[in-house]
Design goal:
- The chain is an all-beta fold.
- Helices cover 0% and strands 50% of the residues.
- It is built from no helices and ten strands.
- It has a four-stranded antiparallel sheet with strand order 1-8-3-6, with no helix packed on it. Strands 2-7-4-5 form a four-stranded antiparallel sheet, with no helix packed on it.
- The C terminus is likely disordered.
């Protein structure tokens, strides 16, 4: 069985790594739809990127220990992922709207 990674992060004014140690996998990162403020993300201490509430992105083959997040408490971010052998890209729903979805198979 492949490892599964699940972490809920309550945001604060301090940068927090998504993983404490090198953790390379396919991950979905989602800001809570109830967040009052934008979450701030950065990679390797670089420029800040703002994510509004309810935004989700799938990152394939990334090291979560290189990504940091901060924001306003009690806002939160959910990180879920695992090691996948096959990635299937699904088309957007009929009628448009939404973004493409990625699902890892072989967990």
């Amino acid at each position: 069985m492949a490892p599964v990674f699940i972490r809920s992060i309550t945001l604060s004014s301090t940068w927090q790594k998504l993983a404490a140690t090198r953790t390379v996998l396919t991950a979905a990162i989602t800001t809570a739809s109830t967040n009052a403020q934008n979450a701030q993300f950065r990679v390797d201490g670089g420029p800040t990127v703002l994510w509004p509430a309810g935004v989700s992105a799938t990152l394939i083959g990334v090291d979560l220990s290189r990504i940091e997040v901060k924001g306003t408490s009690p806002d939160s971010v959910l990180v879920t992922g695992g090691v996948s052998r096959n990635v299937i890209r699904l088309p957007p729903p009929p009628g448009g709207g939404g973004s493409d979805a990625f699902f890892g198979m072989g967990f």
